[in-house]
Amino acid sequence: MPKILVVTSGKGGVGKTTSTAALGAALAQSNHKVAVVDFDVGLRNLDLVMGAERRVVYDLINVAQGDAKLHQALIRDKRLDNLYLLAASQTRDKDALTEDGVRRVIDELRERFDWIVCDSPAGIERGATLAMRFADVAVVVANPEVSSVRDSDRIIGLLDAKTEIAENGGRMEKHLLLTRYDAGRAARGEMLNVEDVLEILSIPLLGVIPESEEVLRASNVGTPVTLHSGVSAPSRAYADAARRLCGVEVPMEIPSDKKGLLVRLFGRRAA
Ligand SMILES: Nc1ncnc2c1ncn2[C@@H]1O[C@H](COP(=O)(O)OP(=O)(O)OP(=O)(O)O)[C@@H](O)[C@H]1O
Ligand SMILES: [Mg+2]
User: Fold this and answer.
1) Measured in angstroms, how far is the CA atom of residue 159 from the centroid of ligand 2?
2) Ligand 2 centroid to 195 CA: how many Å?
3) 126 near 120, Cβ under 8 Å?
4) Going by CA atoms, what residue is nearest to atom 12 of ligand 1?
5) Tell me, what's the pLDDT at 230?
6) 232: Cβ below 6 Å to ligand 1?
7) Torsion angle of the four alpha carbons 126, 127, 129, 133, in this order, in degrees rounded to the nearest 10
C-alpha cells in the first residue's frame, strides 16, 4: 500500500527540505517508486536541493487546479529513474492551494507511487496543515534546541488532531528525526542531548543526523546528501532512517563526541 509521508517541524530552517530529499532518494535507492512533493508555496526549495530548478515547468498548484496533468508536472530525477519531484509554485498566493485540490493530487499520486514524501513549510498555518492533511506517516524534524523541540511538540498535537487519519479515528504513525546534531556541543551542555529530546517528545526516534558540512556541499550542487557521497556520516544516517521507515531493524547510531573524547584523554595524560 502506498505511504503518504509528511516531513514537518513547526520551526523553520531545521532541515525538513534536506531530509525530504535525502529520505526520498534513499527510499528510491532501495527500489521504491518515490515522489517528493514541495508544499512550500512561495519559497520553492526542494527543486534546488534536488538539482531540478531549471526543469520546473508545471507545479503542485497547476495540477491541483487542473491547469496541468500530473504527468506533465512530475520531474524525473536524472540519477534515479524511480524518483520524481513535484515542485511548489514560486509566485502564486498561498491560498491557491486548497484541500480539495491537494486531495485530488495525492489520490492520483497514490496510484503511481510507493512513497509520496511531502515537504512541509515551516509554521502551523494552512500550508503546514495541508501538507500533513492526508498523511499516514509523519517524520517530525527537530534540532537539539529548546525552541525547536517545543515547536515539534505543537506539531505532534496537530498531527493527532488536524489530519484526516486522526479525524477518522485512526493513528498517525509518528517518528522523530533529530538533525544538525553536534555531539561535542551536546556533551558540553550547549545543546540538548538525545535523551533530553526524547524525554520531552514521546515519539520514537527514527534517527540522529549529525551536523555536517557535507549537507551544505551536497545541496550546493543540487544533490540529495544520500546520493552525493555514500560514505559521509549524514548520508549513512539518512539511509539508516529510510530503512527504519520501511520497518527494517537497524541499530541506532548516536553520533559521539570522538574529538572531545580525544581531547579529554590527551588532556588527562598531559596533566
Ligand atoms: N545535518 C546538517 N548539517 C549541516 N547543515 C544542515 C544539516 N541539515 C540541514 N542543514 C542546513 O540547514 C539549512 C536549513 O535546512 P533546510 O532548508 O532543509 O530546512 P527547512 O526545515 O526545510 O527550512 P524551512 O523551514 O525554511 O523550509 C540549510 O542551509 C541546510 O543546508
Ligand atoms: Mg524547507
Assistant:
1) 18
2) 26
3) no
4) 15
5) 66
6) no
7) 120
